Amino acid sequence: MIKLVEDENILVRQSSVEGLGLIAENPELVVPVLTNLLDSDEYTMRLKAFEALGHFHGNAAGAVPRLIEFLTVDDVLIQKAVLFALARIGPAAVTVVIGSRY
What we know:
By secondary structure, the chain is an all-alpha fold. It has a single domain, classed as Alpha Horseshoe (Leucine-rich Repeat Variant). Helix content is 67%, strand content 0%. The chain has 6 helices and no strands. It is globular.
């Protein structure tokens, strides 16, 4: 399913990102792929990547520094998606944030 995030059809790409999040397995392989999608030129792909990362809960802690970068963008939907992802990642996100500040 990871390979489908590069499919030529946008609907296939979006569905694969949603599926990867819902399955939430193999975080060592999937979380980096989803994290890379945060830089996608396709707005909906970025939103779906934020959501999918949240499904990995604490296993997505490695994505927290990148997620935090998006809190300052001038886009309420992006900020909301990031906050939901961080909330779902939970205590692991707090640990990363605190560790990066002190």
